[in-house]
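Fold sample X.
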Amino acid sequence: MTTSPTTSPTPRIAVVGAGPGGLTCARILQRHGIAVTVHDHENGPDARDQGGTLDLHEDNGQIALREAGLLEDFFRLCRPEGQEMRQLDAATGTTGFHHVPEDGERFKPEIDRGRLRDLLLDSLEPGTVHWGRTLRSVEGPADGPRRLHFADGTVVEADLVIGADGAWSRVRRALSPATPRYTGISFLEAWFHDVDHRHPGIADLVGPGSAAAADGERGLFAQRNGGNHIRVYVIQRAPADWIAEAGLTVQDTDGIRALLLDRYHQWSPRLRRLLTDNDGRYVDRPLHALPVPHTWEHSPTVTLLGDAAHLMPPLGVGVNLAMLDACELALALAEHDTVADAVRAYEATMLPRSTDMQRLLDGAADGLLSDEAHDPHGAHDAHDASGHGERSDHRAA
């Protein structure tokens, strides 16, 4: 693989973003003997909590892990029991629809986002990831080379820049003026620790997988995570600044609890404990999505994957599509004679697929508030909520 007659015969590939998509791409490239560097704004792999649990599907996320040579390692780390799903009645707290996975079921087992990231990081050659690199801009001519300007003053030259930097991607600005828009649906995240001992009632309510309830205007989604933790997402149709409109800040835990109790006053007391018994503060996560469709004019030196390319509501597809994108891009780079041909081939598959999925899920965030029972093998899945794609914050950094 080469770049062009006027550039280096060994292309310099830079991935921006050390989330699951960016790391998957780097891992598969290295397996094919292709050099790559990854740049991430965080100061290190343990700089922050990586978010909740993810379900990796056998028809996309698991395909990528197989190409990365990590599928069996994933199966040793994942939680198949996390595929259990309960639909609860908002008024009574009783269980309606209940999916219990069969023994050996591997359709979409759960894994904590942090464990998945560690699996991918540990598979890379030492020094692949450069931490503390906050990207400011991508400059240079369309036919390359491109220059990455970082906040610390570092400038990196690359023949291909891969934007895996999530919802508020700075790499995207080199290709598209599009910015995410608020969907009208807001998540509020709450954490419960040492649940089997400190919150046995909630542990029993949620079980080993996840539980959801909704009344058409508001909802709750609870997930069992590894390490005896549960995360709950309070789902509301509300303005993006609903906390400020109530005269509160996200640090005002008691004030938010009182507001939620008022808004959910008709719900079962058993379910309202998911609103009020959490350990620590809430985390505000308004949901955003890119315009539909989101496409761009082909560039031989810049492309995107995951949320940077097709940010959608968190309905169980974000990380899976990011990893599939990463897999297909890396394989295209390994199989084509030039970077330009590889990028064109990748985008010819990725853009139609993501456009179809964007159209399917456009406005689907409202479905998170539906009180109808859902098949857990369908789209009703808030599993990407805490790490909506490649970055954990739905708002601009």
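Fold sample Y, listed below.
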Amino acid sequence: MSVRRRPVVVVGAGPVGLTTALVLAQGGVPVTVLESGPALSTASRASTFHPATLDLLDELGVASALRAAGREVHEIQWRDLAQRVLHRMGYDALAGRTDHPYRVHVEQSRLTPLLLAALEVHPHAEVCFSTTVFDVRPRGDDVVRLWTDGPDGLRTPLDAG
């Protein structure tokens, strides 16, 4: 897939990059995501999604599928080395302040395919795999040149001329 000129380029197709791109795409902003890997990473660097994150993911349309893939946890426990519970704190105090008064335990790698699928329905959004960003030339608050190396070779998809 060749990289087309877009007002916003997001580097990295991890949870943060894809969430950012999806928020932009749902807002009507054309966006391109550049990912150096050949596919979404299956490595998990996180395993807990907290109420505020779940609220955002719900707005993006992916929270229910993520909840279905994981486990809701309705309290936090602190334990000593012998595994005795020292203290418990429930999420009940958040009821009415969030639609998700709990956290969800699920591998981070289960979220990115959901975000990608939601992003793919937007014709003004694209994700380019095997595309490494190796140089960025800023001017003020803008990027005027962004060099990538990908399936189409060396490119400058953002060339302000």
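Sample Y note: The CA atoms of residues 22 and 50 lie 19 Å apart.
Also: The mean pLDDT is 90.
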